[in-house]
Amino acid sequence: MSENYWELLGFKAEPYATKNPEKISFDLIEWNREDWKHVQDKLEVFLTDLRQGFTTGARFFGGWGSGKTWLIRYIEKEVKDENVFPIYTKVHGAEPSFNILYQITIEDIISKKEIIINQIKKHLGEETLTVKNYIELFEEEDLGKCVYEAFSEGTNRAFAEKWLKGQRLLTDEIKSLKLINQNDSDYARSKTLQNLIEVFLSLFSSVALFVDQLEECSAKLARTLSDVFREYLDAYPEKFVLVCSLQASQEEDWYGAGFTDALLSRLKYSVTLPGFTEDSMVSFLTKHHNTYSGSKKLGLFPYTEEGLRFLFKMTLPERRYPRFLFTQSAFLAKKMIVEDKSEITEEFVKSQLGSLEYVSSQSRVF
After folding, report:
1. How many CB atoms are located within 10 Å of the residue 313 CB?
2. What is the pLDDT, as a whole number, of residue 123?
3. What angle, 0 to 180 degrees and rounded to 10, lies between the N-to-C axes of helices 186-203 and 141-150?
C-alpha cells in the first residue's frame, strides 16, 4: 500500500492527520461545524470587537480533541488580511512553567520576523534598518539590540535569540552583544513580552495572543498567568486581544484549575465546545472531506452514511470529538485499502471493532 493512502482515496492532503492545527495551512481551515451555532454567534461578535480595535478576551473550553486549537487557527485565518498580528503559545505538558511558555511565545514571534521587519520599515519609512532604529523603536537598549540581532543573519544572532528566549547568557555572550542586563527571571521575561507587545501594537491594527493547553498548568502557574495576563489586559486599553483555551467540561473548571476571577472576569467571551451528535458528525465529515478533496468533492467517502452512523453509536460518548474520529477514520481507511474494499460500510466497521480504538467494550461483541 502506498504510504499516502489518502491519495489513493482522492484527497489532496491527509484528511485524518491529528497534527497540531497550527501546522495546517489556511486553505484547509474552513468552518465545518453547523452544530456550533452558539459558538459561531459569539465568535462573530468577538471578531467584530477585534476588528474595531477593542481590547477584549475570550476563553474556550471543551474535551480533549474537541477543536479548541482548530478554533484558534480559524480566528487567525479570519483576520490574516486585516493587519492583525497573531502570537501563539501554549503550556507544555512536559515542563509546565512560565519560562517554557515564554520561550514558545518568543519562538513564534521570531518565526514571523519577516512580517515584523516589513511593518517596521513601513512604520519608520526606512528601506534599510539599523540597530539604532530598533533601539529607538523599542525604547529599551538591550531589547532593541537583541531584536535587531535576532532578526539578522549576523554572528550574534544565536546569542540574541538566547537572550530573548529568557535564557542566561555567558559573560562573553553578554560582552559580544554589549548588553547591560540578563533576561532570565520570570519578572524580566514578563516585562520583555509586555514591551514587545507594546511595540507590535504601534505596528499593527491589533495584537492577538493565543494561549493554548492551559489544562497543563499547576495551580501556582495558573495564578502566575492570571496575574500576568490581567496586567496585559489592563495595560493596553485598545487593540489587544487575549484568547485562552482549557480542556474542561464546565465553566467552574477554570477556577478549579487555579485561574483567578481577576483574569476570568476580563475574558468577556466564554465559549464551550460540545462533542458530536450523530447528525453533526455526518455533517462535519462531509464538509471536512470536501475541503480536503479538491475539485472533486468526495462527501462522506470512503464512508457510507450507515457506516459512519454505526461508528458514532459504537464510539464512547466522551470520545465523540474530531481528534478521535480522525484516528478511527485513518485506521479504517487504511484497512479498507488493504482488504480491497470499496467503502467503509456498517458491516466493515463491525468487522474491525476488535482493533478499533475509542469504542465501548460492549461494542466489541459484534
Report:
1. 12
2. 96
3. 70
CA dihedral 329, 333, 335, 340 (to 10 degrees): 160
Mean pLDDT by 10 residues, the chain (366 residues): 81 88 86 92 95 95 92 93 94 94 97 97 95 96 97 94 97 96 96 97 96 95 96 95 93 93 94 95 96 89 98 96 96 96 97 93 57
- Residue 173 grid coordinates: 555572550
Residues in the chain: 366
CA distance 44 to 92: 30
Could you give the angle at the alpha carbon of 39 between the alpha carbons of 38 and 45, nearest 5°? 95
pLDDT computed for residue 1 by the predictor: 47
- Other CB atoms within 10 A of residue 217 CB: 22
Give Cα separations from 345 to 294, 303, 331 (angstroms): 24, 6, 14
Q: Residues 113, 234, 124, 196: is their CA dihedral positive or negative? A: negative
State residue 113's pLDDT score: 97
Give me the helix-helix angle, 98-111 and 219-235, nearest 10°. Answer: 50
Instruction: At 304, list the grid cell.
Output: 457510507
What's the pTM value of the predicted model, to 2 decimals? 0.90
C-alpha cell at 262: 481577576
Predicted confidence at residue 366, as pLDDT, reads 54
- SS3 annotation, the chain: CCCCHHHHCCCCCCCCCCCCHHHCCHHHCCCCCCCCHHHHHHHHHHHHHHHCCECEEEEEEECCCCCHHHHHHHHHHHCCCCCEEEEEEECCCCCCCHHHHHHHHHHHHHHCHHHHHHHHHHHHCCCCCCHHHHHHHHCCHHHHHHHHHHCCCCCCHHHHHHHHCCCCCCHHHHHHHCCCCCCCCHHHHHHHHHHHHHHHHHHCCEEEEEEECHHHCCHHHHHHHHHHHHHHHHHCCECEEEEEEEECCCCHHHHHCCCCHHHHCCCCEEEEECCCCHHHHHHHHHHHHHHHCCCCCCCCCCECHHHHHHHHHHECHHHCCHHHHHHHHHHHHHHHHHCCCCCECHHHHHHHCCCCCCECHHHHHC
